[in-house]
Design brief:
mainly alpha, 183 residues, 10 helices, elongated
Length: 183
Amino acid sequence: MSRKATITQEEIVNAAFKITKKEGFDKITSRRLAAAAGCSTQPIFRIYDNMDELKKDVVAKAVAFFEDFSKGMETKHETPFVDLGLSYITFAQKHPNLFKLLFVSEANEGASMYDVVNGSEENVVREVSKAKDQGVPDAEQLFMKMWIFIHGAGCMAVTGDYDLEEADSVNMLESAYEAFRLS
């Protein structure tokens, strides 16, 4: 009679997600994961054929985590892309390893950066519409300029080179929006 499985797929993914969040996606190994999950490697490979399958589930969990994080951010600015930018930069500051996984590495094969940021609530679409409502003739092009700026700030946050207070970030994002709008 075979032994009953005592660890679930969800527990394995959660343990791998914790490793990713704390140490980085590249630190997930079967041995490290087994230790974090409190099991041997056998249950991991009973559930997953290989580590790549597991890592796809970790990426999906990271995408969902980012979406929940973004939904939890307050939206209070009239200038398009400011709240979106603040959310992205704050995520990079608070969760640098998840930011790297989702927005800097090639490990996130499942969804494009745009898809992740847009999310199920269509965050980008909403901001582009907001810009159009404010009379921006090519709001999609303005978004591209803002996004390059916002992504750069997020990358700087991950490396510790971005330490602006929220009010300074808002001023910077509003200034960038106005400058790009006029160009």
